[in-house]
UniProtKB/TrEMBL annotation:
GO terms for biological process: carbohydrate derivative metabolic process; carbohydrate metabolic process. GO terms for molecular function: hyalurononglucosaminidase activity; metal ion binding. It holds the Pfam family NAGidase. This is Hyaluronoglucosaminidase. Residues 645-796 form the F5/8 type C domain. It comes from the Bacteria. Belongs to the glycosyl hydrolase 84 family. Keywords: Calcium, Disulfide bond, Glycosidase, Hydrolase, Metal-binding, Signal. Its EC number is 3.2.1.35. It comes from Naumannella cuiyingiana. InterPro entries: FA58C (IPR000421), FTP1 (IPR006585), Galactose-bd-like_sf (IPR008979), GH (IPR017853), Glycosyl_Hydrolase_84 (IPR051822), Hex-like_dom2 (IPR029018), HEX_bac_N (IPR015882), O-GlcNAcase_cat (IPR011496). The active site is at residue 300.
Amino acid sequence: MIPAPRLRRLVAVLAGSVLALGTALTLAPPAAAAPPGRVPVISPTPREVRAAGPDLPLAGRVAVVVGTDTDPAARDLLLGVLRERGARPQVVEGAVPRGVLTFHLGGPERADVRDALGDTAPVSDEEGYALRVTRGGGSVGRVALAGADGAGQFYAVQTLRQVLTPRGSGWRVAGVEVRDAPAMALRGTIEGFYGKPWSQAERLDQLAFYGQIKANTYIYAPKDDPYHRERWRDPYPAEKLAELRELVEQAAANHVRFTFALSPGNTICFSGESDRAALLAKFEAMYAAGVRAFSIPLDDIALQFRCAADTERYGAANQGTVGRAQAELLSFVQREFVATKGDVYPLQTVPTQYGDLTETPYKAAWREYLDPAVVVMWTGTDVVPSSITVEQTERIRELFGREVFVWDNYPVNDFAQTAGRLLLGPYDHREPGLSDTTQGIVSNPMNQAYASKPVIFTMADFAWNDRAYDPKVSGAQAARFLADGDPEVAAALETFVDLNHAAPRFNGENWLPQAPRLAAELARFWDRWDADPPGALAELDPVVTGIEEAPALIRAGTEAGFVADADRNLTATTLWGESLRAAYRLLGALDTGDADAAERARAEMDRAAAEAAAVRSEPGKTRIEGPVKIGDGVLDVFIADVAALHDRSMGLEPLVNASRGKQATAISQWGDGFGPERAVDGNTGNLFASSGREAQPWWQVDLGGAFDVESVAVYNRTDCCTARLADYWVLTSERPFPDSLDAALADPAVTKVRRDDVAGVPTTLPWDARARYVRIWFPGDDARELDLAEVEVLGRAAS
């Protein structure tokens, strides 16, 4: 049963605004209550919903009619919802009481449920349901909750929860008719990231959350659980096994399929009898613990053999032979374990080649040797794709010879380009119609379980009804869900999501843009500023206030887990809000000609921006750590533009990043995609790397002319463990450097500083020299690899 505070919150949040009688449902901003004859917002968006009659008051004694076909979890949920709304439910079987509001929960074949449905056609699709609210005599009425199966009944109650709307001091049941079923069979998450796994409390909370949003799948596959990967042969210790049993029970109570995954690919002998027996023994133990869904992911491993038996059976390791060995192992498990049980879902797997659309001998081997029942997962056209289309899924279905199940690597933040980020933007760029060509979609979430909820909410919305999905509307609904129904907190969450909207790919490019709403608001400000400064400032003021106030509202109004996950990002947002408010005051002072006020505001703006940029992600929380990113490329650019405006007002040339886009060279480079230009392209998500084959490697940028340099910022490569850029020299000069480091260090015309940095930390060095050339140079006689994410040289063109 859902705890009372959560029940209070869910109705308030998801009982939204309304539509006219008879119209198709479109999600809209929530109102306090739905007027009679209107349809409240329901998430996920139902297939069919309409106003069907007057609302019914919910008060006092009500009857809940159940039968042997009633799902226990749905029954408990219904009773909890009704009690939370102030009703006193009485459970009855058989004869239907008269004179009270009656809820009929069960399958559509049961006589009382069928009668309560009236002319509403039942839904026969798996997990489908029909809900009908009708008035009886006087104020008495009936509510039919007819599920095609137990999950359908459970989801019918989840929808009922959202059509209970506050009215005066009580509650009413909106007079609606809903016919609904999911478009995709599998909807949920895979805990498949690297780094700190979720805690037991986080997993239990997630499973309850999935039931609320009608997600039905959770795949247990944390890379850093040693018994999942490295020690896959070993049985779980008793304490850990008890935790897994608890998760299985929690999943069942919320109609979530708990899928246990084992990832043996790094060490298994595919044809070895002992390893096959160990695999089945591990699955048997989990079956005894209540698990009825299993997966064998083979991602992120080398295509090679690890025992002589495999080489003897299949020949030398290559794509075709290893592909066949994998397929035969999976088919063995499907045949010898899954098929023998009778109550186990088809085996799931992730191929080693999981993120492309290329025909290969590996995929051909899977088409030929993999049992047709095995479900294959696919991540899209890349590990983190910018989009997934129907055409792409049709092609991958041809390549693997079956319909795929999408493992979407969003909002996972376990790779370097996501360092310091929470990925909160609503699910997007996945084509409507994927429900026709895929078995479903699961999200690979962040290490931050609670902070992953906004995205998971929207992904579940898409997977339930992809053709009716609207990312902006779904994102707003997710904010209201997390805000406990408080409109101010919901607005603050939407602001916070906008500032954490960026979703990078492995190449450092964002497939979801950063702060799109703020970017549009600031663009409007600058468009108006020259002609009407007071008017532009008046429009900007509420934008600044929204960012200033968002962190405190979120800390006070959302669950503790979300606040803990977002703590560093909220702290950075507070500081950026201070910098933005100071920028607002600076602009006002420039408009009125108050130079002293402008100077004071400038100092405050710069101070707060520097402190904001220095906030780092929580150590140990994610695999990759780094400076927290808030509205980057938007907020910081606005602050820099205001600073430049202030400089011009004082007759100074504005500070510029003199290195951006300039000619960069290096002693060598690692390969394609790691050239020296990567360190001056404005993107800290990619990097330059030298070959690692020479002593004293160097990288250099030619600024194209002399600049009076005020600072040099060196961005170390973001790394999970060590500083890749450590013990190095930063050198500047107006003339080309000598050929050797020793000669450069001895040259009095060269300005130099020696540094030793921490992984992922940008180092800003105050500078006071005129220079055209900037070089990063490693000392020492051993061959070393020089890595740089970015080098920024701030200065003014020399007169």
